[in-house]
């Protein structure tokens, strides 16, 4: 598609369709609202009942806390926006919220709802929210046609794919139906978790952030039975410190992954408090886009194979209160973290239970539980996920798979790369879908920055279509010519 030319703020409305209605969609809408006075006609396709919150911020559990401090969670360019909303709309009785506090995730979902109210009232945005999923994006003239699961197609000058995290790869699919009911492949199904007997043993596949969410929710419900969580390396997310400290990671950084790992290890030796490594990770986080862009495919693969698990647990840290709950459950013996790979699942009919066989370096270990909860993390490869929109985009050549299987192939400005290797000027991938080109696109601060970049790109576009008045004149002239 040929690049569109710049336009001024008085141009006709630009038609934007956002496929997905979670937090990423709200962050982009906020950036469009603030970044320009030009008019937009925005259609969001999202099947969930609650627009704007997505999976992460739809939870009603009060012990599901944000993993980022309040001062970094604003949806717009005002760093204090979320904090002021908290202090005004959800004040605490004694000490009101501070910038270093970790708020409940349901509060952030409510905050995003308040941003949507402001966006709907904005003079430059006409917003339509359709309760349906997008199932296809096909070229239509100089723009796009977005095909929904239900209802009529929508025409767009710009399309943004913001579908969020896909469901984890399912477990227990080879079990008989009765046994499959004991596997919770959707870890967010609150009603099914509520049905777990309080004294039952619970198995959790995974030890990352989702597993932590499940454990603290069970503990909040006063679950008394044993909980066994397992993963290949048995790594748990680390905790935030009381404050940020300088890590001493100075530029220029070495170019190779091996040299960077060595420097980080040198800086964090004899770091009993953990303040130094936290400071290093904070500093390294700001350098990641530049580093990732400088690495070739082989170096990125080395990172994913050897460093990623350790990066994830140090980079994506827990609120101190959540970490304390997990540590307490481990200390009293209720929660056990095990190292091992799930080799097989068997049904134990006489006890209505599942038996999991873990393969370990020193042999095999058997675990038995009333239920297995799948917390292995989102499926990053679109071809292995069940999203028809992404499957069709790749099959049609509109998009291609990222070489590392981390979503869709995109350029540094989040523009989708087509099958022929060209950047689609008016088709963007948002959030984790664009991780292959930028890596760190899972948290609000990075996605907010991405939203601002994409909004600036969109602002410079001119609709590749004639204004309605010009179209009407052309149609009249054509009809007159035919009548002569």
Structure report:
The chain is α/β, with parallel strands linked by helices and 484 residues long. It has three domains: 242 residues, FAD/NAD(P)-binding domain; 119 residues, FAD/NAD(P)-binding domain (3-Layer(bba) Sandwich), CATH 3.50.50; 59 residues, no CATH class. A six-stranded mixed β-sheet has the order 3-2-1-7-17-16. It has a five-stranded parallel β-sheet with strand order 8-15-9-10-11.
Give the topology, please.
Blueprint: E1 14-19, H1 23-35, E2 40-45, H2 81-89, H3 105-121, E3 125-130, E4 134-140, E5 143-148, E6 154-156, E7 158-161, H4 177-180, E8 183-184, H5 190-194, E9 202-205, H6 209-220, E10 227-231, H7 257-267, H8 275-294, H9 297-315, H10 320-331, E11 335-339, E12 341-348, E13 353-360, E14 363-369, E15 371-374, H11 388-395, E16 415-417, E17 423-429, H12 435-438, H13 444-459, H14 468-483
Parallel strand pairs: 1-2, 1-7, 2-3, 7-17, 8-15, 9-10, 9-15, 10-11
Antiparallel strand pairs: 4-5, 5-6, 12-13, 13-14, 16-17
């Amino acid at each position: 598609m040929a690049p569109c030319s710049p336009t001024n703020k008085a141009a006709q409305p630009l038609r934007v369709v956002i496929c997905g209605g979670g937090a990423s969609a709200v962050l982009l809408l906020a950036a469009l609202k603030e970044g320009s006075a030009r008019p937009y006609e925005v259609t969001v396709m999202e099947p969930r009942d609650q627009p704007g919150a997505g999976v992460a911020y739809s939870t009603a559990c009060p012990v599901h806390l944000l993993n980022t401090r309040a001062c970094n969670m604003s949806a717009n360019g005002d760093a204090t926006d979320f904090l002021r909303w908290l202090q005004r709309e959800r004040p605490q009785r004694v000490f009101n919220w501070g910038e270093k506090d970790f708020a409940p995730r349901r509060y952030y979902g409510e905050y995003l709802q308040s941003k949507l109210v402001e966006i709907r009232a904005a003079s430059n945005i006409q917003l339509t929210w359709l309760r349906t999923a997008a199932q296809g994006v096909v070229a239509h003239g100089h723009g796009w046609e977005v095909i929904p699961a239900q209802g009529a197609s929508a025409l767009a000058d710009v399309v943004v794919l913001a579908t969020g995290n896909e469901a984890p790869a399912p477990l227990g699919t080879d079990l008989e139906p009765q046994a499959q009911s004991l596997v919770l492949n959707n870890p967010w199904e609150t009603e099914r978790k509520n049905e777990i007997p309080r004294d039952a043993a619970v198995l959790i596949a995974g030890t990352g952030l989702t597993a932590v969410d499940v454990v603290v929710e069970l503990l909040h419900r006063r679950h008394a039975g044993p909980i066994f969580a397992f993963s290949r390396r048995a790594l748990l997310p680390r905790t935030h410190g009381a404050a940020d400290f300088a890590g001493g990671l100075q530029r220029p950084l070495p170019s190779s992954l091996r040299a960077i790992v060595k420097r980080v290890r040198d800086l964090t030796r004899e770091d009993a408090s953990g303040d130094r490594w936290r400071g290093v990770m904070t500093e390294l986080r700001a350098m990641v886009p530049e580093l990732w862009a400088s690495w070739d495919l082989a170096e990125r693969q080395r990172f994913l194979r050897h460093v990623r698990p350790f990066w994830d647990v140090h980079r994506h840290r827990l609120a101190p209160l959540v970490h304390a709950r997990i540590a307490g459950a481990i200390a009293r013996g209720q929660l056990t973290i095990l190292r091992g790979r799930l080799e097989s699942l068997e049904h134990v009919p006489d006890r209505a239970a599942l038996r999991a066989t873990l393969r370990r370096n020193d042999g095999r270990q058997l675990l038995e539980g009333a239920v297995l909860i799948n917390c292995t993390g989102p499926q990053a490869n679109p071809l292995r996920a069940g999203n028809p929109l992404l499957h069709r985009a790749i099959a049609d050549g509109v998009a291609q798979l990222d070489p590392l299987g981390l979503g869709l192939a995109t350029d540094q400005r989040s523009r989708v790369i087509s099958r022929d290797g060209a950047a689609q000027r008016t088709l963007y991938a948002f959030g984790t879908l664009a991780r292959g080109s930028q890596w760190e696109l899972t948290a609000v601060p990075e996605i907010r920055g991405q939203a601002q970049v994409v909004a600036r790109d969109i602002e410079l576009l001119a609709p590749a279509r004639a204004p309605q008045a010009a179209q009407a004149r052309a149609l009249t002239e054509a009809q007159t010519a035919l009548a002569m």
